[in-house]
Structure formats: C-alpha cells, structure tokens
Records
---
Amino acid sequence: MLPRLISIVVPVYNEQDSLHTLAQEIFTVADVNGYPVQIVFVDDGSRDASWSRIVELAQADPRIGGLRFRRNYGKAAALMAGFAVAEGDPVFMMDADLQDPPVEIPRFLAKLDEGWDVVSGWKQRRYDPWHKVYPSRIFNRMIGWLTGVRLHDHVCGFKCFRRQVLREIRIHGEFHRFLGVFSAARGFRVTEIPTLHRARTTGVGKYGFTRFAKGFLDLLTVWVLTRYRWRPQHVIGMAGLFCIAAWLLSYLPGIGPIVSPLLGVVPGLILIAIGLVAELVAATRPAEELYTVSERVGWCAAGTENQDRESGVARPET
C-alpha cells in the first residue's frame, strides 16, 4: 500500500551545486513509483548560493519548500526544523551531497512496511577517505556496546521514520548521530538496510578529525540521557564514589604508589560529571531556543503562524 504522503527533510550547508540534481532524482523515483512526495530543504546558514537555489526550486515546483536559518545552528537543529513542518508519514532525512541515492527510497518503505518504526541506512561499501571510514566503524561499535542498539552505521544521514517517532524525539547539538538510539530508548523498533553509497562529486566534507573526540563525549551524554535521565545521581554518584575509593586506596600500605597516579583523573571525572549535568539541563530548554528561521519559501511559507506556534520555532525579528 502506497503512503499518503512522503516527506523528505534535507539539511543544507554550502551545497549549492547539488540541490537541483538531488530534487530531480527524488522526483524521478516518486514519479516512477507513484509516490506523493514533498521536500523541505533547510538552509543551515550557508555562505554560498544555496538559499537562492532553494528559492528557484520552490518557485518551479510546488512540492518543494524551504527554511532558512539566520545563522549556522548545526545539522540537528536543521533536522528538527524540517521535522516540525513535514506533513508526510513517513518522513525521510537525507543529506544534500548526493552520496545517498534516492533510488533506495522504495527499499526503505518496503522495510518500514514489515512493522519497523525506524529504518536506517547502512553504507556497506563507503566511498569516503580511510580516515573517515575506519574511525567510524570503531565509533559505531562503541555505540552498540554502550547503548545496546547495534547498527552498523548509526551516523548514516539516510533514514526513514514513522511520524509518531519524530513526535517523541528531540535532538540538539550533534545528536543527529544517535537518532536510532533515542528512538530505541522510547520503545520504537529500529532496524537498518544496506544502501548504495556514492563518492562525493560536489562541495566538500563538513567534518574533521575533531568530530571523533566530540562524538565520544556526545556518546557519553546520550548514554546518560537514555538510561539515567530520571536518575542522574546513579551515574554521577558512581563517578564520585570511584574518586573517593581511589583516594582511600592511596593510603593503604604498598598500594598507595600504584593507586596515587589515578588521582590525576579526578579533575577530568569531575569536569565530565559537570558536563553531563549541563547536558541534562540543556535537554529541557524550550524548543524555540534551538534555532531561528529567518525566511520561508514554497509550501513551507503557508500557514507560517500555525507552524511556528505548534513547533516552537522562534519567529524572525522584524
């Protein structure tokens, strides 16, 4: 059975050369399969002509809408903004760099029809530099080990959700990598399918080596948010007990010289614990503080006041 309407949310950051091709590929798949479809491009503070391209596309085809952020807020905020205005069920997320081929959309829908709530892509054969591929594999295994949600490719930007999932999930910062984890924590059924992956032919990658250090810290935060959000003392208190135990052991005869060096980690543990508390506070911040939409175009411009009121989007200043 064909879906009533498919929404595809595409975060955009300096991808002016790929947008026309991406829209064309999506509509080709939709037309061949008879899918009613709408696209929402979310310009996350691009410094190139991405917004001009989005405006052109929206004026040429009523199935395209666009949101423009006043500045760069990050991919998670762009996804949240797109999810808030998407009208379809199911809802896809897809990168704008053309590395994820829209021809895979029917396979996502077929898997969703098997009873899953979230279907994540798995770039089984990646056309990325080695310094992105191998650390990513290690990171994905760490996510599975720590959270129990075992996917080969948690960070894949090609995913499909039932609308109900997106009503219950909120992400900020760089937590878009953990949408599968957050979904599973809410009791939704999460799976993955191997998908084709293409080499980047336009634009440049947006991530450097620092993303892995940030990703590890985010993983700790996600672990706390999904398992200890309502009992944070269980994890923070355990860190404190570890520090006390290390301090006490340093006074035991014959053990002190061995354990004393561990005291050097105490400041680090304290800072991490404080950071986790800060993230718990950040997770309760009002939605209107996540991003600000400065312009809308296409179908996204219709019913603006109702959309803003329902989604918590901050209204642009006048």
---
Amino acid sequence: MEGIIIREMSSGDLPEVHALEDQCYSTPWSINSFKHELQNKDAILKAAVLNHHIIGYVCVRTILDMTHLLNLAVSPEFRRKGVGSMLLLEVIKDLKRLKPGIKLTLEVRQSNTAAVKLYEGFGFKATGKRTGYYQKPHDDAVIMELDIN
C-alpha cells in the first residue's frame, strides 16, 4: 500500500496503539505492557503509520538466543493489504542485522488461517501446539518458528 511508513514505536504512540489493541484482541494487552516493552532494550517495536495514524504495530523481544513475536496487529480496515507483511519484514531485517542466526518464534490462533498463511509465507514452520492457549474464544495455539539467516 502506498503512503505507509514503518517506524520505531514511541511512547507518544501508546494511546493509539492501545486503542488498536482493544479493537483487535478479545484479551488485549494493557498500556503498561506496551510501556514495559518500550523500555526493554531487547525489544523491537514498530508502528505502521498512514496519514499520521497508526494502522498496525509489531512487538518482538529477544531472550538469550531466541526472539519471540509477542504481538502483531493491523487495523481491520487495512488487513489483507500487506501491512502485516511490511511490519514483519522490517522486524526480520532488524533481527538479521542485530541478532543474526537466532530463531523467531510465535504462537498464533489455530483458527486464524490468514495469520498462519502470512507466517508460512515468510518461511515459518509449525513446530508444535499449545492446547487451550487462548481464551475468549477458547482456541489452541500453533507454535511457529523461523530461523533468521
């Protein structure tokens, strides 16, 4: 999509990010969770911005030799337009530069086939399942992993 800028998330973005989080998830993160990640030197947070409004964001954090995709959201009106791919691509570029050779892991709702396909398109492989991981509604999680090389 034309006009979208992917940039580092800042504390000034938190009200808009949190509003989007509430819109996208049945069990949303608190604003304090985002504040905590922004202060974490091992976290990467990116925002997708269009016309000065946040339409998506991603949060990853490295612990030792693994990086976990904690959160990825795109405004419903901008889904399936490449915004999630843009965010994921930027994070992967950063990880290749900052932490080459690590693994990027995530959990995704088993029922969220669009998200599973997005991750598979980037080369993620399903490595396991967490039964009953999600609530509201109840769902299993697919564990996926990507070697960053």
